[in-house]
Amino acid sequence: MAPIALTIAGSDSGGGAGIQADLKAMSALGVYGASVITAVTAQNTQAVTAVEGVSLDVIRAQINAVLSDLDVRAIKIGMLATPEIIETVANALDSYDGPIVLDPVMVAKSGDALLADEAVTTLRDILLPMALILTPNLPEAARLLDAGQAYTADAMREQGQALCDLGPGAVLMKGGHGQGEVCTDLLVPAMGDAIALTAPRLATRNTHGTGCTLSSAIAAGLAKGLGVVEATRQAHSYLQGAIRAADALQIGRGHGPVHHFHEVWT
């Protein structure tokens, strides 16, 4: 039987992030992807022009429909938008005992907000303890901790540990918003030493959906039975290849998507 992963996230009409990116990444990595849509966005490579949340009843029904029939080996959670949606998702997953990857989506690549201010506390208090791994970028980590953004390896490690103290089994501090020629992601486990994952910082504007893609790739690895460290390493390597091939796509006039199927077609 094919391994199955579930993504719970918002829809990106431009196809570069959200549910669309999640399913592409899972498929590219040999995992069957199921989906629960929490919000619909009118979005392209330049802007988010409208957002509408899906009703709580329909979100709950989607989760129940998938989990009652499919053998879901891992779940990725992305855009949830409001406290009510966060609470609905958490309650619907209360009896799920598989690994959960939580990507705390707050702002689109265009700069448009995707998480209400009042939802940050709910996300932190309710969902962080449910996550096997949390995958914030540096601004998201700072917002979750109500702190300044980390710019050094020591500060990233400290914030990763502070987030682990809130409940997740591990935190991947993503360094895409950092500085320098080398981009470093820092995997901080609740117990044990941090692991640095490095790659050259690529000169491209086509990075739309990188966070969604990375968290979904981790979920795909977990669905295939990998541990957190190995799933994160493989996802990191996959994403770097997708970013390197992104310019070949030439999608849109803004921040274009990464190439999820770079190993299949060019």
Q: Can you give a write-up of this model?
A:
With 266 residues, this protein is α/β, with parallel strands linked by helices. The chain has a single domain, classed as Ribokinase (UDP-N-acetylmuramoyl-L-alanine:D-glutamate ligase). Helices cover 35% and strands 21% of the residues. It has helices at residues 18-28, 56-67, 83-92, 119-127, 138-145, 153-164, 210-223, 228-244; strands spanning 4-12, 32-43, 48-53, 72-77, 100-102, 133-134, 170-173, 182-189, 195-200. The protein has a 9-stranded mixed beta sheet. The protein is globular.
Q: How helical, in percent, are the residues?
A: 25-40%
Helical stretch tally: 8
**SSE pattern, N- to C-terminal:** EHEEHEHEHEHHEEEHH
Q: Cα distance, first to last residue? A: 29 Å
CA radius of gyration is 17 Å
Q: Which CATH architecture would you pick?
A: 3-Layer(aba) Sandwich
The name of the CATH superfamily reads: Ribokinase
Query: Which class in CATH terms?
Result: Alpha Beta
Largest sheet: 9 strands, mixed
The CATH topology: UDP-N-acetylmuramoyl-L-alanine:D-glutamate ligase
Strand content: 15-25%
**Low-confidence runs (pLDDT<50, min 5 residues)?**
none
Rough outline: globular
Mean pLDDT: 95
